[in-house]
Amino acid sequence: MASPSGSSSSSPPTTYPSFRYHPRHPSFPYTARDFQRQDESPDPDFYSAPRFVTHIDDHAIRALSAYYAQNLPPTGRVLDFCSSWISHLPPALEARAVQTARGELGAEGEEGAPLEVVGMGINEKELAANPVLAQRILQDLNARPEIPAAVGALDAATCVVSVDYLIHPREVLQSLRTRVKKGGTVHLVVSNRCFPTKAVGRWLRVGEQEKLLMVGDYLHWSGWREVEVVTVCDGKGEGGGWFGMGRPDPLWVVRGRNVDG
User: Fold this and answer.
1) What is the pLDDT of residue 145?
2) Cα–Cα distance for residue pair 20/18, rounded to 1 Å
3) Using CA atoms, how far apart are residues 126 and 124, in angstroms rounded to an integer?
4) Please, how many CA atoms are within 13 Å of residue 15, restricted to the half-sphere of its CB?
5) Which are the contacts of 201, defined by CB distance < 8 A and separation ≥ 6?
6) Residue 196 pLDDT greater than 90, yes or no
7) CA nearest 115: which of 102, 128, 126?
8) pLDDT digits (tens, 9 = 90+) for 217-235
9) N or C, where is the chain less crowded by C-beta within 10 Å?
């Protein structure tokens, strides 16, 4: 999958290990049982208290920001769904998004074109604290598994370490395709951390490789193409964990493009 036109960096681009997803089943392979959770209470209740913490370590955050620098459009409109108080954008994109949110940048096509980031989540205080968001949508995607027209025409979409909580992932991702422009991309970020009582049941029963293929299935069977699994951080070495004293969190992106085929 090629990098978005117009993205740039002062350092050589990183080559990320990746492999192309190939469909393994003749139809969507998962049943309602696969999406049952230990805690079936309403998600807005579980997430009612704001959590101003990060859910991956600092090493993984830096790696994700570097990935975004190469793979998100520098201008346009991006949806961050299952969003929170931070969107992990690299400095240049974060600065542009903040300026856009403040109304300080001109129209698309002009010098200083905007980067509009739309945040969708279920905790109002967390969304309110995210400075890059030009628009905030409070919605529980498990109760209403659709992306509303209010997001506008999107160039890309991201979801950070939250796809494992979606109980209707195919419906959400099918709906997302109707909002993303042709050629636009989706980037589903996966880690080995989760709230186990809220993750879907099958997620807890399978290993890391199968989790990645499972997300690939979600994308393929909702109509996305050119699906790839990218290793953003392999979890090896030092400098991760709490206080940089352990191994870093592994991090992957399962991504697809909105094209016919």
Assistant:
1) 98
2) 7
3) 6
4) 0
5) 33, 34, 35, 36, 37, 38
6) yes
7) 102
8) 999 999 999 999 999 999 8
9) C
